[in-house]
Design a protein that fits this description.
Largest sheet: 8 strands, parallel
Number of helices: 14
Number of strands: 12
CATH superfamily: Aldolase class I
Radius of gyration: 20 Å
Distance between the termini: 49 Å
CATH topology: TIM Barrel
Strand content: 5-15%
């Protein structure tokens, strides 16, 4: 039986099919629009969850999630760059039971899949970060909470029943930074993740702007000034959001001196900056271009990983995010030198589609695909994935 919700979803997908927003969702197949999955277990891959989430999430909110910058060239490059790397499969090895576990800062995790910080999650589902935290607990995944989350760190830690990592933006000046550091420390967060790829703001997010224009709702009901100035950001409470601070190497050094948490730097894409991070003694580097949302470099993050890993050479913990959608993508990132990977949009597609069960399904899909990749390519454990596992066309 066709419901009103089904009809509304199809109408929305028909709108998107003729919209420039299509450029922001590489890999989505609109033949799926007539047969959206109705339960988490029906999703065959991540893109099935994307299709259902696209029909559930309000137009402008979907635009915020899906957008890149300008013509979305970096967003597209994050996917197409994976295609130039091929896997060198080994044979006649015992891969009946592969071991996907990794160790991060002395703690063992069942997979190298980390939930990346992504703000405003209640824009995609009423339970937002709390549903994600419960899914992370159920599947035992590391979760990183955004400064601009729609739920306070204290509540997320309670829902996760385990400390999460805290991602840091610098709005509110040094006073605002210190306030957030103290709250994260008090909540038990062991790591702060400083994002450095948006120091001067972002280039124009055209796909978002088009989505907002096509949303018939009154955005002023929920937002004051838009963007970071939107209501519902509890980690910014008490901060003077107009106060500015320069995001520099000096700031990073000051940050390291002012917190008991370990410090990771997210947004590094060159060997030179990786070397500088090592000189300052950071505890980890995250290769990332903010999912194609921060600048118009046109370079895929997997290519940046190859460069950064050659400079790091195992001297600090190395993560990669931006563009990972399948288990084989995870395999390639690990082969190029990442110790773990982060995903953002894939688990939010699960959230938008089905709430906590959708997030769990997204994590299950990626984990199962990684297991299959490891079996197919002859790598019994994560430690067996290395430079010999990959080549470039």
């Amino acid at each position: 039986m066709t419901t009103v919700l089904d009809t509304n979803r199809r109408q929305f997908l028909q709108f998107l099919a003729a919209s420039p927003l299509l450029s922001a969702v590489p890999g989505f197949n609109f033949t799926q629009a007539a047969d959206l999955v109705g339960k988490p277990g029906e999703a065959i891959d991540i893109f099935d969850l994307e299709a259902t989430a696209m029909g559930n999430i309000p137009t402008a909110h979907w635009g915020y999630l899906a957008t890149g910058v300008n013509d979305d060239s970096t967003l597209r490059a994050n996917r197409t760059a994976f295609e130039k790397y091929f896997v060198r499969a080994r044979r006649l090895l015992d891969v009946v039971n592969v071991d996907t576990s990794v160790e991060i800062l002395g703690r063992k995790w069942p997979t190298p899949i980390v939930l990346a910080p992504l703000g405003s999650q209640r824009a995609f589902h009423a339970e937002g970060e709390l549903a994600v935290a419960r899914a992370a607990k159920a599947r035992d995944h590391l979760q990183v909470l955004s400064t601009v989350s729609s739920t306070a760190v204290e509540e997320v830690v309670e829902a996760r029943r385990d400390p999460v990592w805290f991602q840091l933006y610098t709005m509110g000046g040094w006073q605002g930074v210190q306030s957030r550091l103290r709250r994260a420390e008090a909540a038990g967060c062991p790591v702060v993740v400083l994002t450095v790829d948006m120091a001067g703001g972002t280039a124009a997010r055209h796909s978002l702007m088009r989505a907002v224009r096509n949303d018939s709702r009154d955005c002023a009901v929920c937002h004051q000034g838009g963007g970071i100035a939107a209501r519902g950001k509890p980690m910014l409470n008490g901060s003077d959001r107009d106060a500015e601070i320069s995001l520099t190497w000096e700031f990073l050094d000051r940050l390291k001196q002012d917190t008991t948490m370990k410090v990771f730097v997210k947004g590094i894409v060159t060997a030179q900056d990786a070397e500088r991070c090592l000189e300052l003694g950071v505890d980890g580097i995250i290769v990332s271009n903010h999912g194609g949302r921060a600048d118009d470099s046109g370079r895929g993050a997997i290519d940046s990983l190859a460069e950064v890993a050659s400079a790091v050479r195992g001297r600090t913990t190395l993560f990669m995010d931006s563009g990972i959608r399948r288990g084989v993508d995870i395999f390639k990132a690990l082969a190029l030198g990442a110790d773990a990977i982060m995903v953002g949009r894939p688990y939010i597609w699960g959230l938008g589609a089905f709430g906590q069960p959708g997030v769990e399904r997204a994590l299950d899909i990626l984990t199962a695909e990684l297991q299959v990749a490891m079996q197919s390519f002859g790598t019994p454990s994560i430690a067996d994935i290395g430079p010999d596992s990959i080549g470039i066309s």
